[in-house]
């Protein structure tokens, strides 16, 4: 372990930003399993650099981004962000024979000490005095996925050039001040109105029916990997003037309706909130839940895609808000309706690029249908705790789509999780080449059985 010293700019103390408060609440709900929110990045260097240069780059990185030198104490019951102008960070130095993924997993496995520990952990893999790989693990209070990508980009440039001349993005301390301003409060009230209006017209929860006894580890996750689904989603996005992410969310909402029998679907997409130029390179957690509300009373799936796109835009536009005020408003709506209101139905697309078109001619029907034979669905993990019942996670790159579904097995038994993923692919492929009647969706959910820990189409 080596200790590197950093000298930053200002020190300060401020309330949490809205995004920080949202993730703080999520973290607190999962204690003691809150290490679930830790995540890492692996930076492999084409040209290894001397150890001292890597240490200096890490110190300069922490100095550049205030969120990396911030702790989160609780004062009078309220968490705050406290920035230090200078300090020391322990950096783990290991032999380059170590497996980077295993090192990342070890660093992710321990919960951060939020009031006392810097919210970033760094390991260097070293051989013959040269660093070949850098592993960076984040507390989610310091960064979301987009912020982590900015950190990795800046670290790479510091390792190559030794200096960065461009200023960093807006800092969380400044964002907290803006959110307390009149303009920030107006935006927060508009978002609150969107949420309260939506939550008054949706079912109290999307998954109300307990279908089975929960398993010993109640949350199971399966991953679908599909070239066919990627092609089909992009074909539909191009045809309907939408994004492939919105196509996927609309398809998921339609199938949730087929599972539950609900005619209005409420889904909570995680929105990165980096629409303003000043925030695109910001290292913090800006992402918050949006509220996507879609009326499923349509004759065909194709008829859902335009209202799905409009509902998604409204959700994205109103996904930055004061979490404390929203929590109070949601509790009030629960009192009005005589029961708690929460969709427990989430959607998270973490792809770096959402491409609708194709670089060459679009794939034909024969190619897309043939690609279905390559699709796999495998179980990936099981969790003890998660504050949701249905979480659909999208990853991958153009040409290969990865969709994982984590479900509460009391409401989504494992066989239903599997069938949902197969049905999602089938719906996208069918809809790419014909207008699928909504009445067909329940039948799409009967196309998989479990065998030897994998899901297979029957």
Automatic annotation (TrEMBL):
Residues 12-322 form the Condensation domain. GO terms for biological process: amino acid activation for nonribosomal peptide biosynthetic process; lipid biosynthetic process; secondary metabolite biosynthetic process. SUPFAM superfamilies: CoA-dependent acyltransferases. It comes from the Bacteria. InterPro entries: CAT-like_dom_sf, Condensation_dom. PANTHER family: FATTY ACID SYNTHASE (PTHR45527:SF1), NONRIBOSOMAL PEPTIDE SYNTHETASE (PTHR45527). This is Condensation domain-containing protein. It holds the Pfam family Condensation. GO terms for molecular function: catalytic activity; phosphopantetheine binding.
